[in-house]
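Saturday, quiet lab. Running sequence design on the structure tokens for the scaffold JK sent over.
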């Protein structure tokens, strides 16, 4: 029958709870060519803070280079911790070969960056948005993933819940970065 839902009730529930994923084109009908969205322009002016406590505009992280920017819920979230651990397994050479920066932004004090990087083994760039200004400006409720280059956003993934992070290899492919085989580095806990 046309229009009839298929699958079990559980499968339909999972499909209904799918993440919001948007492919952002170069041109949108409500914006002139080359003009960035107002929300991104406003967010670009918001300050992020590095591990040393130095504040810099969010926009400076991606204006001149291609970047994968991952916003995490907070550093105490176990799921976010595991996701950042996996991001830390991406070899710097893969990112350098693709001329891509990997950036994680959390909602915390800058004093928590170094301990969180030590805990997760994350060696790439990390900043915090201590006042949640970027999160508020972009209307984020939880984690997000975006691939940007210059003023252009190529891809945005909005998590629907804490378990809905975008697969890392999908993000790497979108940014033109070599994918990582995570199966050889898995941590198995026997209970």
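Result came back. Writing it out in full:
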């Amino acid at each position: 029958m046309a229009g009839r839902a298929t699958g079990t009730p559980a499968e339909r529930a999972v499909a209904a709870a799918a993440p919001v994923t948007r492919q952002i084109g170069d041109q949108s009908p409500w914006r002139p060519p080359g003009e960035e969205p107002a929300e991104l322009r406003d967010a670009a002016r918001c300050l992020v803070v590095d591990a040393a406590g130095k504040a810099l505009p969010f926009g400076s992280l991606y204006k001149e280079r291609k970047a994968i920017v991952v916003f995490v819920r907070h550093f105490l979230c176990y799921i976010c911790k595991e996701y950042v651990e996996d991001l830390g397994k991406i070899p710097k050479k893969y990112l350098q070969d693709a001329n891509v920066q990997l950036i994680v932004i959390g909602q915390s004090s800058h004093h928590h960056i170094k301990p969180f990087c030590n805990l997760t083994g994350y060696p790439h760039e990390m900043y915090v948005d201590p006042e949640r200004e970027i999160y508020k400006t972009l209307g984020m409720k939880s984690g997000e993933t975006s691939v940007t280059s210059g003023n252009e956003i190529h891809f945005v993934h909005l998590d629907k819940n804490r378990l809905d992070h975008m697969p890392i290899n999908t993000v790497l492919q979108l940014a033109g970065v070599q994918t990582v085989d995570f199966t050889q580095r898995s941590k198995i806990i026997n209970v």
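Notes for JK: The chain has one domain: 32-180. The two ends are 47 Å apart (CA to CA). Ask whether to fix the surface positions before the next round.
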